[in-house]
Write a structure and sequence with these properties.
Elements lengths: L7 E3 L3 E8 L2 E8 L8 H10 L11 E8 L10 H14 L6 E6 L3 E3 L7 E2 L1 H17 L3 E4 L2 H6 L9 H5 L7 E3 L2 E3 L2 H15 L7 E6 L12 H16 L13 E4 L28 H8 L4 E4 L4 H7 L5 E6 L4 H6 L1 H11 L8 E9 L10 H14 L6 E4 L5 E3 L7 E2 L1 H16 L2 E2 L2 E3 L2 E3 L5 E3 L43 H4 L1 H5 L5 E5 L3
Parallel strand pairs: 1-4, 3-12, 4-5, 5-8, 8-11, 11-12, 13-14, 14-15, 15-16
Antiparallel strand pairs: 2-3, 6-7, 9-10, 17-18, 19-23, 20-21, 22-23
Helix pairs in contact: 2-3, 11-12, 12-13
GO molecular function: glucan endo-1,3-beta-D-glucosidase activity
Enzyme class: hydrolase
Family: Belongs to the glycosyl hydrolase 17 family.
């Protein structure tokens, strides 16, 4: 989204950044309930990088919220007094800053249809004087609007389509007299407006102080894809300046919750509303860029949780790297490999599609080289134990090649051959034939083709693999930096020992194999 003006709402444990583009009002919550969050200066630089421009004067105080969601709790009766005293103090300081309070939708007792909206018996006595104060001062009521919680609170998911809660097309239409609702966001806001009017606040405006959708911890409902859809949809609603069915000429001011995932919030979905991870990696904005460029595969060099969550339900394949420094532990201890798989892979499937796991990057010529094969084997075993069929390999540099010209003479260097021989052997022994060879040709079951030479007993393969790019004529897809070898260098790979039966099953000139079991 384009961010134009930075403003601040004073609020316990949170800051709110305000964006104004013409009459469009969109902001984001900067929550501070985390012990791993970046320093404020870094956050401000992040916001500036998203085109937020400095306001004048240096800080613009948009609102002061006297508490957050306290109306149904033991502190509720203190709110109106705090609001009045703060307003008096601000006037004395010649400051014109609206004072309000933030309420949860649970303060609503009657919610359907929206025109019947009314505060609950518990909250109405608290909120009536608050609404009267806001009406007299022309201040808004701050409301935290979460269609997600309304949706899961129904108990029976069939009573409402998820698409309606997300604001997607195809969610259906809910009629309330002559008013038509095609999304839950608008319905909630108009329900609050109806409740406000019933206690005498006809001119009180609703500001959506918090709204968002969690990215994890509740199965298929809380995916990055759903969070992305919801945020994009509500932003589009605000930018359209169409208001709500009940108040079509009233522009809604809205703050997305939240800037970061916050690990000191209650466990579960509450910790997973962030647009960014604490390391300032984006949950789904960068993924949008990749998808807009029709990129179908992406490689990451370490298992970044934010990126993996963002890749969920995108259909994009990911090559995930094991950090070089982790190879020794993974090779030495199978339990470490199990933990790595259960930390970095299991939580993200099936939403994320893992293409390969790379045990290290370009370490074959270095001091960590002898840990690679052990790490690969332990990871493969751990993946199989988790019933995950993800190929494990390693990424090598072309410097591992000792003889490179002509390509048919390709051979690993003396330094690398002892390391790579067991790695290549590991690859081969985990191959399975996934094709049906017939006289008419081959039924392709994988994307890894090795040319078969009918005049020889060996597989003679020159494989050039670079950055997941399909290379003709062998149609090889992979992720090594660059690798060329001849299989005849390794007698164990000879067609003589392994492929006599396959060769007699037909006249196919190519043998298709899945790279791993």
């Amino acid at each position: 989204m384009d961010l134009y003006l930075l403003s601040l709402v004073i609020y316990v444990s949170s800051c709110f950044f305000y964006i104004h583009a013409g009459a469009q009002e969109i902001g984001v919550n900067y929550g501070l309930l985390g012990n791993n969050l970046p320093p404020p200066d870094s956050v401000i630089n992040l916001l500036k990088s998203r085109n937020i421009q400095k306001g004048t004067p240096a800080s613009i105080f948009r609102y002061i919220s006297a508490g957050n969601e306290v109306i149904l709790g033991p502190l509720a009766h203190f709110v109106i007094g705090a609001m009045k005293n703060l307003d008096t103090a601000l006037k004395a300081a010649n400051l014109h800053i609206p004072v309000s309070t933030a309420i949860h939708f649970q303060a609503i007792g009657q919610s359907f249809p929206p025109s019947n909206g009314a505060f609950s018996e518990v909250s109405v006595n608290i909120l009536t004087p608050i609404i009267a104060f806001l009406e007299s001062r022309e201040f808004p009521l701050l409301v935290n609007v979460y269609p997600y919680f309304a949706y899961i609170g129904l108990g029976d998911p069939k009573s409402m389509k998820l698409e309606y809660a997300l604001g997607n097309a195809g969610g259906g239409v809910v009629s309330d007299g002559v008013l038509q609702y095609n999304n839950l966001f608008d319905a909630i806001i108009d329900t609050v407006y109806s409740a406000i009017e019933k206690v005498g606040g006809k001119s009180v405006r609703v500001v959506v102080l918090e709204t968002g959708w969690p990215t994890a911890e509740n199965g298929e409902i809380t995916t990055v894809g759903n969070a992305q859809a919801y945020v994009n949809n509500v932003i589009a609603r605000i930018k359209s300046q169409s208001g709500t069915p009940k108040r079509p000429r009233s522009t809604t001011e809205m703050y997305i919750f939240a800037l970061f995932n916050e690990n000191l919030k209650p466990p579960g979905t509450e910790q997973n509303f962030g647009l960014y991870q604490p390391d300032m990696t984006e949950e789904f904005i960068m993924i949008n860029l990749l998808k807009s460029r029709n990129i179908q595969k992406v490689r990451i060099f370490d298992p970044n949780p934010g990126v993996l969550r963002a890749l969920g339900d995108t259909g994009m394949e990911v090559v995930i790297g094991v950090r070089n420094k982790d190879l020794e532990q993974l090779a030495a201890n199978s339990s470490s490999a199990i933990q790595w798989v259960h930390t970095n892979v299991v939580p993200y499937v099936p939403a994320a599609i893992f293409r390969y796991i790379s045990a290290g990057n370009e370490v074959i010529l270095g001091p960590l080289a002898h840990f690679v094969i052990g790490a690969m084997k332990n990871l493969d075993t751990a993946l199989k134990a988790a019933n995950l069929h993800i190929p494990v390999s390693t990424a090598i540099h072309f410097q591992a090649i000792g003889q490179s010209f002509p390509p048919s003479n390709g051979a690993f260097s003396e330094v690398s051959v002892n390391i790579l021989t067991p790695i290549i052997t590991f690859h081969f022994y985990f191959l399975k034939y996934k094709s049906k060879v017939t006289r008419s040709g081959i039924e392709k079951k994988s994307n890894f083709l090795l040319p078969y030479s009918s005049g020889h007993n060996e597989f003679i393969s020159r494989i050039c693999v670079q950055a997941q790019i399909k290379i003709d004529p062998f149609q090889v897809v992979g992720f090594f930096s660059l690798l060329c070898w001849s299989f005849e260098r390794f007698p164990v790979l000879s067609g003589k020992e392994k492929n006599t039966n396959a060769r007699t099953q037909g006249e196919a000139k190519f043998l298709t194999m899945n790279q791993f079991a």
